[in-house]
Design a protein that fits this description.
By secondary structure, this protein is an alpha/beta fold. The chain has two domains: about 15-150 and about 300-320, Response regulator (Rossmann fold); about 155-295, Rossmann fold, CATH 3.40.50.2300. It is built from eleven helices and 13 strands. It comes from Geodermatophilus tzadiensis. One of its GO terms (cellular component) is outer membrane-bounded periplasmic space.
Length: about 350
C-alpha cells in the first residue's frame, strides 16, 4: 500500500515531450497569435490565458471530480477554462478541437473517447500552433510519438489491484477449483489492457495462479458491466466464490451488482474496485457488499495537475513534461475517508 496522505503528489518526468512545442509557447504566454495554419491563440479579451479541457464521459464521477479539480486550479491561477464533455463520441472530440481553436484557446487538454483519434487531434493542435496535453488515456501523433501525458501508470495500478485480490483470496481460504475471477474492461482501450494485465500477472504470482480468469468485454460503464456479467454467471453455476477486478470502479460495481442480484452472497465475492468513488457508496451507507476494497485514484488531482502543467508551460516557455503520473493507494471501508475519498 502506498502512502495515505490526503493530497498525493504527482511525479514529473523530465523527458522532452514528443511534440515540438517550444517555438509556440512564448507567443501563447504573451497572448499573441501562435503558429500558422489558422491557429488563433491569444486567450480571452482581457489577456488571461484560456485553456480547453475536452473530456470523455463527463457524467462519470471520476471525470466530474476531474473537471472540478481543473476548475479550482484555473481559478487559483487566473486562467479561463472551457470544460467540454464529448461523451463517448470520437467525432465530437475532433470537432471540439476545431471549436476551441476558433475560440482562441492557448492550450488544449484532452481525454480522448478513442485512442485511435490521437494522430488526428495531435495534427489539428500542431497545425493551429496550440500545445496539446493528453489526460488519462495516452495518445500518439501520426509519427508514433507520444503526446505529453498526465494521469496514472496503468500497469502499476493493475499490479496494486492484483496484489490486493491475491491477499483477499488467500485470507478467504477459498478453493481455486470453485473460484473464478471476472476481469471486466473495455478491451480496445490500451490503458484498460494495461490495468487488467497487471492485475492478472500479480494475482497469479501471489497465490492465484490456479484460479481461472474470465475476461469480460464491456463499455466501461456500470450498466454495461452488469449486463455482460449476467451471461458469465449463468454459464458457471458450480462456482461458489467470485473475485472481481476491472478497468474502473464502474466495471467492478456492475459485476458485483450482477453477482449479488443473482443470489451470490457478498461474503462469497471479493471485488477490488479501481477509483473508489463507487466502491465507497455501500461502505458509507453501511450496506453489505462484495466490494471489499478499491484502488483510490483522484480525478481532481489529475485535472488540477493537467491545468498546472499547461499553465507553467505557457507562462515559462517550457516544453510540457512527457509524463506526469499520480500516486495511488488501496482503501477499504475502514480507511477510505482518512485517505481523502469523497463519497457523493
Amino acid at each position: 500500500m502506498l502512502s495515505s496522505t490526503r493530497r498525493r503528489p504527482l511525479a514529473r518526468a523530465s523527458v522532452v515531450a514528443g511534440l515540438a512545442l517550444a517555438t509556440v509557447l512564448s507567443a501563447c504566454s504573451s497572448g499573441q497569435e501562435a503558429g500558422s495554419g489558422g491557429g488563433s491563440g491569444g486567450g480571452s479579451d482581457d489577456g488571461a490565458l484560456r485553456i480547453a479541457y475536452i473530456q470523455k464521459q463527463g457524467d462519470q464521477q471520476y471525470f466530474v471530480d476531474q473537471a472540478q479539480g481543473a476548475q479550482e486550479a484555473a481559478d487559483e491561477l487566473g486562467v479561463e477554462l472551457d470544460v467540454v464533455d464529448v461523451g463517448t463520441d470520437a467525432n465530437k472530440a475532433i470537432s471540439a478541437i476545431d471549436t476551441e481553436v476558433a475560440r482562441g484557446v492557448d492550450g488544449i487538454i484532452i481525454v480522448v473517447p478513442d485512442q485511435q483519434i490521437g494522430p488526428t487531434v495531435a495534427q489539428a493542435a500542431t497545425n493551429a500552433g496550440v500545445p496539446l496535453l493528453a489526460s488519462d488515456d495516452s495518445i500518439e501523433d501520426g509519427s508514433g510519438n507520444a503526446v505529453p501525458f498526465v494521469g496514472f501508470n496503468g500497469t502499476q495500478m493493475g499490479e496494486a489491484v492484483g496484489e490486493e485480490a491475491a491477499r483477499l483470496f488467500t485470507e478467504s481460504g477459498w478453493n481455486a477449483a470453485d473460484t473464478r475471477v471476472i476481469s471486466a474492461y473495455k478491451q480496445d482501450l490500451s490503458v484498460c489492457a494495461d490495468r487488467v494485465q497487471g492485475a492478472r500477472s500479480t494475482f497469479e504470482a501471489n497465490g492465484g495462479g490456479e484460479v481461472e480468469v474470465i475476461d469480460v468485454g464491456t463499455d466501461n460503464s456500470a450498466t454495461g458491466a452488469q449486463d455482460e456479467a449476467g451471461a458469465v454467471i449463468t454459464a458457471n453455476p458450480g462456482v461458489k466464490h467470485w473475485i472481481v477486478w476491472g478497468c474502473n470502479d464502474e466495471n467492478v460495481d456492475g459485476v458485483v451488482t450482477a453477482l449479488q442480484n443473482s443470489g451470490v452472497s457478498p461474503d462469497d465475492i471479493n471485488g477490488v474496485g479501481l477509483g473508489a468513488y463507487l466502491a465507497c457508496k455501500p461502505w458509507a451507507a453501511g450496506e453489505a457488499t462484495g466490494m471489499r476494497s478499491a484502488l483510490f485514484i483522484s480525478g481532481a488531482e489529475v485535472g488540477r495537475t493537467a491545468v498546472e502543467e499547461m499553465v507553467q508551460a505557457l507562462q515559462d516557455g517550457e516544453d510540457l513534461p512527457a509524463e506526469t503520473f499520480a500516486n495511488t493507494e488501496i482503501v477499504t471501508a475502514d480507511n477510505y475517508e482518512d485517505a481523502g475519498v469523497v463519497c457523493t
